[in-house]
Design a protein that fits this description.
The protein has 303 residues and is an alpha/beta fold. It is built from 10 helices and 12 strands. Helix 1 packs across helix 2 and helix 2 crosses helix 3. The radius of gyration is 22 Å and the shape is globular.
Length: 303
Protein backbone atom coordinates (compact mmCIF):
# COMPACT_ATOMS: atom_id res chain seq x y z
CA UNK A 1 0.00 0.00 0.00
CA UNK A 2 1.34 3.43 -0.94
CA UNK A 3 0.76 5.78 2.01
CA UNK A 4 -0.12 9.24 0.75
CA UNK A 5 0.35 10.93 4.13
CA UNK A 6 3.82 11.52 5.54
CA UNK A 7 4.97 13.14 8.77
CA UNK A 8 6.83 15.68 6.64
CA UNK A 9 3.63 16.76 4.87
CA UNK A 10 1.81 17.12 8.20
CA UNK A 11 4.68 19.25 9.53
CA UNK A 12 4.29 21.51 6.49
CA UNK A 13 0.51 21.87 7.07
CA UNK A 14 1.13 22.64 10.72
CA UNK A 15 3.69 25.32 9.90
CA UNK A 16 1.40 27.01 7.35
CA UNK A 17 -1.54 27.00 9.78
CA UNK A 18 0.59 28.48 12.58
CA UNK A 19 2.47 31.05 10.51
CA UNK A 20 -0.43 32.11 8.26
CA UNK A 21 1.34 31.89 4.90
CA UNK A 22 3.35 29.54 2.74
CA UNK A 23 6.33 31.94 2.75
CA UNK A 24 6.41 32.24 6.55
CA UNK A 25 6.07 28.45 6.89
CA UNK A 26 9.00 27.95 4.51
CA UNK A 27 11.14 30.31 6.57
CA UNK A 28 10.29 28.53 9.83
CA UNK A 29 11.14 25.14 8.30
CA UNK A 30 14.32 26.47 6.60
CA UNK A 31 12.99 25.52 3.18
CA UNK A 32 12.28 27.44 -0.02
CA UNK A 33 8.62 28.49 -0.63
CA UNK A 34 8.41 26.41 -3.82
CA UNK A 35 9.11 23.24 -1.83
CA UNK A 36 6.27 24.06 0.56
CA UNK A 37 3.90 24.75 -2.33
CA UNK A 38 4.86 21.48 -4.03
CA UNK A 39 4.33 19.44 -0.84
CA UNK A 40 0.82 20.85 -0.37
CA UNK A 41 -0.21 20.44 -4.02
CA UNK A 42 1.11 16.88 -4.13
CA UNK A 43 -0.81 16.00 -0.96
CA UNK A 44 -4.00 17.58 -2.31
CA UNK A 45 -3.63 15.63 -5.57
CA UNK A 46 -2.96 12.35 -3.76
CA UNK A 47 -5.91 12.79 -1.39
CA UNK A 48 -8.22 14.38 -3.96
CA UNK A 49 -9.22 17.24 -1.64
CA UNK A 50 -8.44 20.94 -1.24
CA UNK A 51 -6.65 21.65 2.02
CA UNK A 52 -6.36 25.45 1.85
CA UNK A 53 -8.58 28.31 0.74
CA UNK A 54 -6.37 30.35 -1.52
CA UNK A 55 -8.47 33.52 -1.56
CA UNK A 56 -7.20 36.38 0.60
CA UNK A 57 -3.75 37.12 1.94
CA UNK A 58 -3.74 34.58 4.76
CA UNK A 59 -3.64 30.85 4.09
CA UNK A 60 -6.69 29.33 5.80
CA UNK A 61 -7.55 25.66 6.07
CA UNK A 62 -10.64 24.15 4.50
CA UNK A 63 -12.78 21.92 6.72
CA UNK A 64 -10.97 18.90 5.30
CA UNK A 65 -7.60 20.55 5.91
CA UNK A 66 -8.51 21.43 9.49
CA UNK A 67 -9.57 17.84 10.21
CA UNK A 68 -6.39 16.48 8.67
CA UNK A 69 -4.23 18.86 10.69
CA UNK A 70 -6.05 18.18 13.96
CA UNK A 71 -5.55 14.43 13.66
CA UNK A 72 -2.12 14.85 12.05
CA UNK A 73 -0.82 16.76 15.06
CA UNK A 74 -1.56 13.72 17.19
CA UNK A 75 0.56 11.64 14.80
CA UNK A 76 3.43 14.15 14.98
CA UNK A 77 3.32 14.15 18.76
CA UNK A 78 3.22 10.35 18.88
CA UNK A 79 6.16 10.08 16.46
CA UNK A 80 8.24 12.57 18.46
CA UNK A 81 7.45 10.78 21.71
CA UNK A 82 8.32 7.40 20.20
CA UNK A 83 11.66 8.69 18.92
CA UNK A 84 12.49 10.24 22.28
CA UNK A 85 11.40 7.12 24.17
CA UNK A 86 13.57 4.81 22.04
CA UNK A 87 16.63 7.03 22.56
CA UNK A 88 15.93 7.34 26.28
CA UNK A 89 15.60 3.57 26.68
CA UNK A 90 18.98 3.14 25.00
CA UNK A 91 20.83 5.65 27.19
CA UNK A 92 18.58 6.51 30.13
CA UNK A 93 19.03 10.18 29.19
CA UNK A 94 16.79 12.36 27.06
CA UNK A 95 18.26 13.72 23.83
CA UNK A 96 16.10 16.85 24.14
CA UNK A 97 13.85 18.50 26.73
CA UNK A 98 11.53 21.45 26.21
CA UNK A 99 10.70 23.80 29.07
CA UNK A 100 7.72 26.15 28.90
CA UNK A 101 8.46 29.20 31.04
CA UNK A 102 5.91 31.78 32.12
CA UNK A 103 6.80 35.29 30.99
CA UNK A 104 5.45 36.50 34.34
CA UNK A 105 8.42 34.93 36.16
CA UNK A 106 12.05 36.15 35.93
CA UNK A 107 13.89 34.24 33.20
CA UNK A 108 17.20 34.81 35.01
CA UNK A 109 16.28 32.21 37.63
CA UNK A 110 15.92 29.54 34.96
CA UNK A 111 19.17 30.59 33.26
CA UNK A 112 21.06 30.24 36.55
CA UNK A 113 19.59 26.76 36.97
CA UNK A 114 20.57 25.80 33.41
CA UNK A 115 24.17 26.76 34.14
CA UNK A 116 24.23 24.05 36.80
CA UNK A 117 22.40 21.67 34.47
CA UNK A 118 25.09 21.90 31.79
CA UNK A 119 27.76 21.17 34.38
CA UNK A 120 26.20 17.70 34.79
CA UNK A 121 27.16 16.84 31.18
CA UNK A 122 23.94 15.03 30.32
CA UNK A 123 24.34 16.00 26.67
CA UNK A 124 20.63 16.84 26.54
CA UNK A 125 19.58 19.71 24.28
CA UNK A 126 17.30 22.21 26.04
CA UNK A 127 14.63 24.27 24.32
CA UNK A 128 12.93 27.06 26.28
CA UNK A 129 9.50 28.38 25.27
CA UNK A 130 8.36 31.73 26.66
CA UNK A 131 4.62 31.35 27.18
CA UNK A 132 1.95 33.78 28.30
CA UNK A 133 -0.63 32.99 30.99
CA UNK A 134 -2.52 29.75 30.18
CA UNK A 135 -0.08 29.01 27.37
CA UNK A 136 2.23 27.49 29.99
CA UNK A 137 -0.40 24.82 30.67
CA UNK A 138 -1.24 24.51 26.96
CA UNK A 139 2.38 23.79 26.01
CA UNK A 140 2.44 20.89 28.46
CA UNK A 141 -0.96 19.46 27.60
CA UNK A 142 -0.35 19.51 23.83
CA UNK A 143 3.09 17.93 24.09
CA UNK A 144 5.01 21.05 23.06
CA UNK A 145 6.79 21.01 26.43
CA UNK A 146 8.00 18.34 28.84
CA UNK A 147 8.16 20.68 31.85
CA UNK A 148 6.17 23.84 32.59
CA UNK A 149 7.40 26.49 35.02
CA UNK A 150 4.93 29.08 36.25
CA UNK A 151 1.70 27.40 35.14
CA UNK A 152 -0.92 29.74 36.67
CA UNK A 153 -3.99 28.92 38.71
CA UNK A 154 -5.83 25.63 38.45
CA UNK A 155 -4.62 23.06 35.95
CA UNK A 156 -6.82 21.94 33.03
CA UNK A 157 -9.17 18.99 33.40
CA UNK A 158 -8.28 15.62 31.99
CA UNK A 159 -5.14 14.81 33.93
CA UNK A 160 -2.05 13.39 32.29
CA UNK A 161 0.24 15.60 34.34
CA UNK A 162 1.60 16.13 37.84
CA UNK A 163 2.14 19.52 39.46
CA UNK A 164 3.58 21.21 42.55
CA UNK A 165 3.23 24.76 43.84
CA UNK A 166 6.27 26.94 43.15
CA UNK A 167 5.20 30.34 44.49
CA UNK A 168 2.47 32.97 44.57
CA UNK A 169 2.81 35.93 42.22
CA UNK A 170 1.74 39.34 43.52
CA UNK A 171 0.02 41.67 41.04
CA UNK A 172 -0.47 45.44 41.38
CA UNK A 173 -2.88 47.70 39.51
CA UNK A 174 -0.57 50.13 37.73
CA UNK A 175 -1.11 53.27 35.66
CA UNK A 176 1.30 55.71 34.03
CA UNK A 177 2.10 58.74 36.18
CA UNK A 178 0.48 60.99 33.55
CA UNK A 179 -2.64 58.82 33.13
CA UNK A 180 -5.96 60.40 34.29
CA UNK A 181 -6.54 57.59 36.81
CA UNK A 182 -3.27 58.44 38.57
CA UNK A 183 -4.79 61.61 40.06
CA UNK A 184 -8.04 60.03 41.28
CA UNK A 185 -8.29 59.18 45.01
CA UNK A 186 -7.85 55.58 46.13
CA UNK A 187 -9.47 53.16 46.02
CA UNK A 188 -10.53 53.22 42.37
CA UNK A 189 -14.00 51.90 41.68
CA UNK A 190 -14.90 49.75 38.68
CA UNK A 191 -16.93 52.61 37.21
CA UNK A 192 -13.77 54.73 37.26
CA UNK A 193 -11.59 52.07 35.63
CA UNK A 194 -14.01 50.94 32.92
CA UNK A 195 -13.83 54.37 31.26
CA UNK A 196 -10.20 53.70 30.30
CA UNK A 197 -8.55 51.11 28.10
CA UNK A 198 -7.20 47.92 29.65
CA UNK A 199 -3.87 46.50 28.51
CA UNK A 200 -3.86 42.72 28.26
CA UNK A 201 -1.10 40.19 27.54
CA UNK A 202 -2.39 37.69 24.97
CA UNK A 203 -2.71 34.16 26.28
CA UNK A 204 -0.41 32.02 24.11
CA UNK A 205 -2.60 28.88 24.29
CA UNK A 206 -3.09 27.10 20.98
CA UNK A 207 -5.60 24.45 22.00
CA UNK A 208 -6.82 25.24 25.52
CA UNK A 209 -9.35 28.07 25.90
CA UNK A 210 -7.40 31.33 26.45
CA UNK A 211 -7.57 32.82 29.93
CA UNK A 212 -8.23 36.49 30.69
CA UNK A 213 -8.13 38.42 33.93
CA UNK A 214 -8.71 41.94 35.20
CA UNK A 215 -10.80 43.14 32.24
CA UNK A 216 -14.15 44.74 33.06
CA UNK A 217 -17.30 44.21 31.01
CA UNK A 218 -17.55 46.83 28.28
CA UNK A 219 -13.96 48.01 28.73
CA UNK A 220 -11.82 48.75 25.67
CA UNK A 221 -8.82 46.41 25.43
CA UNK A 222 -5.40 46.70 23.82
CA UNK A 223 -3.90 43.21 23.57
CA UNK A 224 -0.11 42.95 23.57
CA UNK A 225 1.93 39.82 22.74
CA UNK A 226 3.54 39.35 26.17
CA UNK A 227 3.97 40.76 29.66
CA UNK A 228 6.98 42.92 28.77
CA UNK A 229 5.16 44.69 25.93
CA UNK A 230 2.12 45.10 28.21
CA UNK A 231 4.38 46.82 30.73
CA UNK A 232 5.76 49.15 28.05
CA UNK A 233 2.26 50.03 26.83
CA UNK A 234 1.18 50.93 30.36
CA UNK A 235 4.26 53.10 30.89
CA UNK A 236 3.28 54.96 27.69
CA UNK A 237 -0.18 55.56 29.17
CA UNK A 238 -2.00 53.61 26.45
CA UNK A 239 -4.05 51.86 29.10
CA UNK A 240 -4.10 50.39 32.58
CA UNK A 241 -4.03 46.99 34.22
CA UNK A 242 -2.40 44.56 36.62
CA UNK A 243 1.32 43.88 36.44
CA UNK A 244 3.54 41.46 38.37
CA UNK A 245 4.90 43.44 41.29
CA UNK A 246 8.53 42.48 40.59
CA UNK A 247 8.22 43.60 36.95
CA UNK A 248 6.73 47.00 37.80
CA UNK A 249 8.74 47.94 40.90
CA UNK A 250 11.68 49.74 39.23
CA UNK A 251 9.28 51.77 37.09
CA UNK A 252 7.36 52.70 40.23
CA UNK A 253 10.61 53.78 41.87
CA UNK A 254 11.50 55.91 38.82
CA UNK A 255 8.09 57.59 38.88
CA UNK A 256 6.97 56.25 35.48
CA UNK A 257 4.22 54.11 37.02
CA UNK A 258 1.89 54.67 39.94
CA UNK A 259 0.29 51.87 41.95
CA UNK A 260 -3.40 52.44 42.61
CA UNK A 261 -5.60 50.70 45.15
CA UNK A 262 -8.84 49.29 43.73
CA UNK A 263 -12.05 48.24 45.42
CA UNK A 264 -11.97 44.81 43.75
CA UNK A 265 -8.28 43.94 43.83
CA UNK A 266 -6.72 40.94 42.10
CA UNK A 267 -5.55 38.24 44.44
CA UNK A 268 -2.20 36.49 44.36
CA UNK A 269 -1.88 34.00 41.52
CA UNK A 270 -0.50 30.54 42.39
CA UNK A 271 2.27 29.47 40.01
CA UNK A 272 3.00 25.77 39.50
CA UNK A 273 5.69 23.43 38.27
CA UNK A 274 4.04 20.80 36.07
CA UNK A 275 5.20 17.85 34.02
CA UNK A 276 3.61 15.08 32.01
CA UNK A 277 3.28 11.70 33.68
CA UNK A 278 2.26 9.70 30.60
CA UNK A 279 5.76 8.23 30.31
CA UNK A 280 6.66 6.25 33.41
CA UNK A 281 10.32 5.88 32.43
CA UNK A 282 11.46 9.46 32.99
CA UNK A 283 15.05 10.07 31.91
CA UNK A 284 17.88 11.17 34.17
CA UNK A 285 18.07 14.71 32.79
CA UNK A 286 14.40 15.46 33.47
CA UNK A 287 14.61 13.88 36.92
CA UNK A 288 17.55 16.14 37.75
CA UNK A 289 15.82 19.24 36.40
CA UNK A 290 12.56 18.63 38.26
CA UNK A 291 14.40 18.12 41.54
CA UNK A 292 16.41 21.34 41.09
CA UNK A 293 13.37 23.39 39.98
CA UNK A 294 11.53 22.30 43.13
CA UNK A 295 14.49 23.33 45.32
CA UNK A 296 14.82 26.76 43.64
CA UNK A 297 13.17 29.84 45.13
CA UNK A 298 10.90 31.22 42.41
CA UNK A 299 9.28 33.95 44.51
CA UNK A 300 10.24 37.21 42.72
CA UNK A 301 9.78 39.22 45.92
CA UNK A 302 12.66 37.25 47.46
CA UNK A 303 15.07 37.98 44.61
Amino acid sequence: MNNKLTLESIEVLDAIARKGSFAAAAESLFRVPSAITYTVRKLEEDLGVSLFNRTGHRATLTDAGAELLQEGRHLLQAANELEARVKRIATGIETELTIAMSDALPMGVLLDLLQHFYQQNFGTRIKVLNEVYGGVWDALMTGRADISIGAPGDGPAGGGYLSKMLCHLDFEFAVAAHHPLASLPDPLKNQDIVEYRSISAADSSRNLPPRTSGILKGQDVLTMPNMQSKLEAQIKGLGVGYLPKFLAHKHIASGELVIKQVTESKHEVPMHLAWRNSDKAMGKAQQWLLKQIEKTNWDPSAL
